[in-house]
Write a structure and sequence with these properties.
Layout lengths: L4 E4 L3 E8 L11 E9 L1 H10 L5 E8 L2 H12 L3 E8 L5 E7 L5 E6 L19 E4 L5 H13 L3 E4 L9 H5 L3 E5 H8 L6 H12 L5 E5 L5 E5 L3 E4 L12 H14 L4 H15 L6 H4 L3 H5 L5
Parallel strand pairs: 1-4, 1-8, 2-6, 4-5, 8-9, 9-10, 10-11
Antiparallel strand pairs: 2-3, 6-7, 11-12, 12-13
């Protein structure tokens, strides 16, 4: 029986501006296009996981504004359980402004709003073997509370340390897996990641902090998996990068969906890496650029 993926995280309304070059301080640049879409790392990862028919539950908060309707519709359309998404009175929903340049690189400013007000009084029906993932666009006390509850129920816990903040020993002790990019892994380990070899070294150092498994994404260089038994490098396909903003969340949501379907780490990472590579060939966030199942199965059977 497939496990349920729980996402404790953020939901935002994103405004994405395409520009020739990302503006420097004091500069005004003309955008070639503007798109409004739903996002937030948590919602993106939840939608990506649900894309594969996985049972997904979301734990979070929205504001009492017009944006909240759009955000809640995302969960309904993806058949995500939103019974633990609360509306916070006199608070705005999360939002983000994203600049994407002609090379596909981006910079993002986020206003957390209700995402930093997730209450700790909810009682998700965690079941042994479920998976819970979180990120750092939400209040830390909610992470601590729900991770403690999850571990008491035998749930496998995952942290995506983005945007990066230093993890407390308490939270690290409650974490089974870390999934981080090159920059986040460098900050966690204190080691500059330059290649696959240094990524493996960084992963081993992060293991010493408490988690049993570390996954480091390296963009064009693929993905590194490090655990107590082994280290593994999984390469990716060559791509024509258009927009990188959807890749990380698509990767993680897909990874967790495949693990929930009892795929091995290597199988799950290979599928997730493929999905991320297909995302960067399209414009838009994860919820816009997520490839169809048919597109994925042109390359790999899922």
């Amino acid at each position: 029986m497939d496990k349920k993926v729980w996402v404790l995280g953020s939901s935002n309304l994103d405004m994405t501006y395409r520009v020739k070059d990302i503006p420097l301080k004091g500069y005004t640049v003309e955008a070639t296009s503007c798109m409004t879409a739903t996002g937030g790392k948590g919602a993106n990862q939840a939608v990506a996981a649900a894309h594969f028919g996985t049972q997904v539950g979301f734990i979070g908060a929205v504001g009492d504004d017009i944006s909240s309707k759009m955000l809640l519709e995302v969960f309904d359309n993806a058949e995500i359980d939103r019974s633990h998404v609360l509306c916070i009175e006199k608070e705005s929903s999360g939002s983000a402004i994203i600049f994407v340049d002609d090379q596909g690189d981006n910079c993002i400013a986020v206003h957390s709003g209700a995402n930093k007000c997730i209450p700790t009084g909810m009682k998700p029906d965690f079941t042994k073997g479920d998976i819970l993932v979180t990120q750092f666009e939400i209040n830390i006390d909610a992470i601590s509370h729900y991770f403690k509850l999850a571990k008491s129920c035998g749930v496998y816990t995952v942290i995506n340390p983005s945007p990066y903040v230093s993890l407390s020993e308490e939270i690290l002790d409650l974490t089974d897996m870390i999934v981080a990019n090159e920059s986040e892994s460098s900050q966690m380990s204190g080691l500059k990641i330059r290649d696959v070899e240094t990524a493996i070294t960084a992963g081993k150092k992060i293991l010493q902090m408490g988690p049993s498994t570390v996954v480091i994404t390296l963009g064009a260089q693929g993905v590194v998996l490090v655990n107590q038994d082994d280290s593994l490098h999984i390469t990716g396909r060559s791509v024509n990068v258009v927009d990188t903003q959807g890749a990380g969340d698509a990767f993680l949501g897909t990874l967790l969906a495949q693990l929930a379907k009892n795929k091995t780490y290597q199988e799950a990472i290979s599928i997730a890496n493929l999905v991320a590579s297909l995302c960067v060939e399209k414009h838009g966030s994860t919820q816009v650029s997520m490839p169809t199942i048919d597109e994925i199965e042109r390359y790999i059977k899922i």
